[in-house]
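We now fix the convention by which a protein and its fold are recorded. Think of the row as the fold of the chain written in a discrete alphabet. Here is one such record, which you should read through line by line.
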Amino acid sequence: MATVVLTSIGLLATQSAEYGDLPNAALVIEDGLISWIGPAHSAPDADEQVDLGDRCVLPGFVDSHAHLVFAGDRSAEFSARMSGQRYRAGGILTTVAATRAAADDVLLRRVAALTAEMRSSGTTTYEIKSGYGLTVHDERRCLQLACQFTTETTFLGGHVVAPEFAGDPGGYVDLVCGDMLTACSPYARWIDVFCEDGAFDADAARAILRAGARTGLGGRVHANQLRPGPGVQLACEMDAASADHCTHLTGADVDALAAANTVATLLPGAEFSTRSPYPDARRLLDAGVPVALATDCNPGTSYTTSMPFCIAVAVREMGMTPAEAVHAATVGGAAALRRTDIGHISPGARADLVALDAPTPAHLAYRPGVGLTSAVWKDGLRVV
């Protein structure tokens, strides 16, 4: 395979504890991986050389929470919230109806457009959930479509109770744990559940996670978004890879996360879009909890694909430093997917890279709303 050296890197922000920030650096890409990093003047020869003109380079962002397979539009709901209406989980069913009615090619075009947006802003790895089908057929086809874009696919039949089961939520849980899981598990790596008033209580969520674990799916939990509840501690109990949202936490919740192998994934786009209180990232970081940032891209409560936007909001509203926010959007996201090959720049890691028209990653928060992405590499291939 041809080797490529990226040189004249003003700052290589590796997000690696071993290598840290390297000024005046270079790196070598070989066979989709990083094979060498170090001072530019010591770079080995390569088949191709790319001069980055003193730009900053960091790992590609890892978006560990996104709902990209959907149809329809909920901008009217957003406008209503901005006029003072309170967010409730039931709006999901609006998207369920539109998604069920949409042809596969319509859904594919939407996912392709959203993933292209992600890539253009520097995201190189992303998770995609189902959850807008809520029938065996529609959940399976949503995951089959998602598999065309990523290996990080999540079965979210436990998003809300399907409308056909409004009077029989226990029957819907049985469906999710039975025929729906059987149909969907071949197309998923993860199983997720929305543990919240208006969705699933702790007992139902535990049953769904246990059923998924029996089929080999890793656990994830939508937890404590709307109010304090059992979701975070359930995620820790079940050794879920992540507890997502974590907006309303008790001291016991923070202690549980600090003692567990569960990442607290914070989704500031949701609070921005619902005018809800932001999660307290500072409290989690000070307690030693691993934190990730993700977009929660979805049509109802966080219709953004931009990790730079989420970084800026996390710095401004959630008590994170710019360095902590970038770390959460790279290393943190990788940890939330239990991946060690992405989210950092070091020999042996995947060559997923972002070059910024900026001297440091702090500019992602310092210059909010400005498109700073100059180039993106995925598995060693330039894609932007």
Remarks:
- DSSP finds 13 helices and 16 strands in the chain.
